[in-house]
Amino acid sequence: MENTHSGKWFVVQTLSGQEFKVQESVMKRREIEGVADRVFDVAVPTERVSEVRQGRKTTMNRKFFPGYILVNMALYDADGKVDGEVWAFIKESQGIIGFIGGDRPLPLTDTEVSDIMNQAKEADETEKPKIDFEIGDVVNIRDGAFENFEGEIESVDPDRGKLRLSVSIFGRSTPVEVEYWQVERAT
Fold first, then answer.
1. What gap in Å lies between CA 14 and CA 19, rounded to an integer?
2. Handedness of CA 61, 65, 66, 70 (dihedral sign)
3. pLDDT of residue 5 exceeding 60
4. pTM above 0.90?
5. 134 with 168: CB under 8 angstroms?
6. 160: pLDDT strictly greater than 80
7. Which residues pair with 48 in a beta bridge?
8. Are 130 and 124 in contact, with CB atoms under 8 Å apart?
9. Phi, psi for 154 (deg, rounded to 5)
10. 82: which residues sit within 8 A by CB, 6+ positions away?
11. Rounded distance between C-alpha atoms, residue 81 and residue 39, angstroms
C-alpha cells in the first residue's frame, strides 16, 4: 500500500459496514471501466482485536475509521483540475457517499498516510484485547484462583489485557491482577 504512483490518498465516506465491499468493487471495476491508470489502490486500515464471547475467545478485524476508506488515485490532472472520469467513477460506485472535503477534496499528506499505514501494519502484527471495562466497574471473577469473588476495577492495562481489582478477602481489600477475559460485569 505504498504510494509508488503519481496518485495521492483521499478519504472517501462509505455506507457503514460496506467498506470491504466497496474496496473489492472499486478494485474490480477500475480495470473494466478504464481508470486503472488513475485509481491505484483502496485501503481499509484495520487492527486485530480479541474478545471473549460466551466463554470463547474470538479474534476479529476492527476498522480504524468505520464508514471510511482510503483511495490512492490521480484525482487532479497536471493543471490542478478534477479528472471528471475518476470523480464520476468513485462517486457513482455503489456504497460510496462521497469525498471528505466536498467538491474540492484535499489529499492526505505523505506523513498522514505513512502514520496510518504504519499503525495498521503494527496493529496487524499484534492482537489487542478488546476491553470495555472502566475504573470503578464492579466485576465477577469467573476463572482463576479468585473465581466467584467480586471486585472493583482499580486500573486497566489494555496493552497487556490485564485488570487490577480490589477484592474483599476475609474482610480486607486485596489487590488482584487478572486478565480481561477472566471477569464479567457484575449484574
1. 6
2. negative
3. no
4. no
5. no
6. no
7. 61, 127
8. no
9. -100, -30
10. 75, 76, 104
11. 16
Phi, then psi, of 10 in degrees rounded to 5: -120, 150
Encoded amino acid at 26, one letter: V
19, three cell numbers: 467498506
Q: Which burial class, exposed, middle or buried, applies to 121 when counting CB atoms under 10 A from its CB (0-12, 13-18, 19+)?
A: exposed
Q: Considering only CA atoms, which of 154, 156, 145 is closest in space to residue 173?
A: 154
Instruction: Assign residue 39 a region (left: φ > 0; alpha: ψ between -120 and 50; beta: otherwise).
Output: beta
Neighbouring C-alpha atoms within 13 Å toward the C-beta of 104:
2
Tell me the pLDDT band of 106, cut-offs 50, 70 and 90: very high
List CB contacts of 137: < 8 A, sequence separation 6 or more. 152, 153, 185
Phi, psi of 31 (to 5 degrees): -70, -50
For residue 114, what is its C-alpha cell? Answer: 505513512
* Cell (9 digits) for 121: 501494519
The Cα 152–Cα 166 span in angstroms is 5
pLDDT tens for each residue of 69-86: 999 999 998 888 999 999
Q: What is the mean pLDDT of residues 132-150?
A: 86
Residue position matching grid coordinates 472535503 = 101
Q: Which residues contact 69 (CB under 8 A, 6 or more apart)?
A: 11, 12, 14, 19, 22, 23, 42, 43, 44
